[in-house]
Recover the amino acids of this structure.
């Protein structure tokens, strides 16, 4: 654990984020991907490891990692439980609940096997994770356990931070944190999604900023996808829900 914690102190240069993002003005240059081992340690920030997350009847505990800004008394690692209309911030506290979902402001995750006590990071890439969801109903049907995440992995506006001014994305991993993969395309932002268990699919949509023909203005257009978890490995497929109407 000490080796992992020392390694992660290089990552703590992010600001807190939520799912609602502001529109960015600078898309001309390529977004920057921040790597943990390439970020200089910031002595104004203190590494914090939350109490572990445990999803009932599974073999792993998950340690959320974040930071506290020593220059900001209000700064905190936020991990909160979801409730119908939104979420309530709980400072340095995690609660489990039936929806198998956590929202927060998390830099990375450490997965610990309860049988072997082995540990590993979710990824060596810098992230700002704002939700973690265990797809329990999918596991019951397919016998394969997945975690679904939303978060930020690219510094779109090149300000050195991963925050609400950057694109929110969708990710999937196996339950043990392996095979962590980004699902949304680099130029699109995750908007929302819905799990249809009977169909064994997670439907989601993204937005992409496009130039309006004959105008200097830009507009967001929607793209529609689903993740087909009935396949192993799963498939990500784009579809057009208006294909019957618009030819």
């Amino acid at each position: 654990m000490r080796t992992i914690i020392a390694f992660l102190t290089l990552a703590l240069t992010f600001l807190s984020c939520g799912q609602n993002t502001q529109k960015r003005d600078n898309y001309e240059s390529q977004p920057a991907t921040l790597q943990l081992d390439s970020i200089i340690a910031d002595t104004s920030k203190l590494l914090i490891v939350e109490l572990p997350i445990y999803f009932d009847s599974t073999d792993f505990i998950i340690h959320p990692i974040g930071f506290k800004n020593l220059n900001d008394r209000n700064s905190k690692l936020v991990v909160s439980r979801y409730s119908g209309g939104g979420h309530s911030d709980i400072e340095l506290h995690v609660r489990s609940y039936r929806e198998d979902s956590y929202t927060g402001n998390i830099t990375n995750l450490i997965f610990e096997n309860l049988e072997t006590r082995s540990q590993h990071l979710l990824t060596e890439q810098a992230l700002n994770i704002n939700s973690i969801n265990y797809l329990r109903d999918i596991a019951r049907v397919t016998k394969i356990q997945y975690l679904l995440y939303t978060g930020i992995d690219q510094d779109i506006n090149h300000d050195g931070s991963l925050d609400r001014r950057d694109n929110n994305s969708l990710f999937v991993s196996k339950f043990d944190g392996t095979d962590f993969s980004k699902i949304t395309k680099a130029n699109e932002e995750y908007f929302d999604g819905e799990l249809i268990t009977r169909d064994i699919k997670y439907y989601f949509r993204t937005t992409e900023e496009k130039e309006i023909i004959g105008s200097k203005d830009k507009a967001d257009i929607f793209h529609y996808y689903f993740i087909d978890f009935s396949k192993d490995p799963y498939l990500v497929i784009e579809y057009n829900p208006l294909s019957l109407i618009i030819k």
In short: Residues 159 and 165 are 9 Å apart (CA to CA).
